Amino acid sequence: MNENSTHFEAVVVGAGISGIGAAIHLKRIGVRNFVILERADSLGGTWRANTYPGCACDVPSALYSYSFAANPDWSRAFAEQPEIREYIESTAGKHDVDRHVRFGVEMTNARWDAARSRWQIETSDGDITARFLIAAAGPWSEPLTPDLPGLDTFTGEVFHSSQWNHDYDLRGKRVAVVGTGASAVQFVPKIVSQVSSLHLYQRTAQWVLPKPDHYVPRIERSIMRLIPGAQKTLRSLEYGMMESLGLGFRNPWILRIVQKLGSAQLRLQVRDRKLRKALTPNYTLGCKRLLMSNTYYPALSRPNVSVHTNAVSALRGNTVIGADGVEAEVDAIIFGTGFHILDMPIADKVFDGDGRSLDDHWKGSPRAYYGSTVTGFPNAFILLGPSLGTGHTSAFMILEAQLDYMAQAISHARAREWDTFDVRPEVQAAFNAHVQDALATTVYNAGGCESYFFDVNGRNSFNWPWSSDAMRRRLHDFDPNAYNHTGRSHATSPAAALNEEYSV
Questions:
Q1: Fewest beta carbons within 10 Å, which of 188, 216, 373, 473?
Q2: pLDDT for position 489
Q3: What is the DSSP letter of 282?
Q4: pTM score, two decimals?
């Protein structure tokens, strides 16, 4: 890649697992003239940014990796952040991805130029153009921090879990933790013994299952490294187990049985009846993101912890005021409040040929074809986009299905000399109608809770309602009939694209 180039065949936004995977697939199909724009100074995406104590994956390590870059050396059944980041960087290095990255460069605007059939992209380091645009920033790139009344009057330390301040010494401090999602379940047990008091603000109790994590002995790692097929067999077994759990997300009665594990753990680890009641969810397991921990409940049972079963309503100086009016004076506030998942910031930076942004098109409800392409935005892809999230499998599995689809689409366009391809609006609408119909009976929609799966309009724009195998099948082959295109090859009939059948 010429560092002074201003036109590329493809521009990738983000150098996390999605961007790195996109780069590897582009190289596989012969695309060499591409660039990755990364606003940070290093690779890794969410696994670079999130360094909070206890940060780890909640999917078995063998599944939390690219299938083409198996890692036999995971030291734990569920890998921790430093090891995952090392794996990501190592994989990028082996595939020579680094030389395509422009670090410290942020995409500020991308506009489709219909007259020239290319993307006009403004960056913090000048303007560039591209034939293909690949948005790989992901849904976990922008932390969500609530705008609490009086927060500007707080004189203590404030940070989000994804922007952990390691220079701040928590020892002996009075700390408020706002939010009880995946990050809080991991970092609270790590800090509770350091702080003098911890006030946990929980709007909704979470189901927390036992985590079957353990150290992987060296001999087991040697087997993975030396015996042909061992790593693949382990990955297949873990995939099968997670898919068995996934069956419950489509049949909630199964998860009501599984959640008895969570109830049993809660009874065993929390002896105080009042606290146990406060920590008992009133919805079906899987309605919110599945959480696993062996240490979260014991941490909340410590005498220096107060669990507040309500949100924070305001701050007055260094006093946190709960929605129930109870006040707590603290020295620091840590937000474990997640990310801009469905209101992804990149959506107001990408514009169609008429100057309308993705946000303008979506009006609060993200929609795409297979979570990957959006009508009105030719030659563009969103990785880990809307309607692809599951409650049980690895982001890598979803990502690779998309990357194969993206690679086929680009190869198809190059081979047939298409200038542009744009998903037909009726095809996108039909797919999304199928998704919404199928979601109605899943635990995501019928589990009895509110979650980040639902957008501001009350529509589930996050989840895939079928099996992971169904996702892989549907994205296995690029169907040109689903797209309008311009270029030298003959137009194709849209009939096949509208007669798809969606299976579990």
A1: 473
A2: 57
A3: S
A4: 0.95
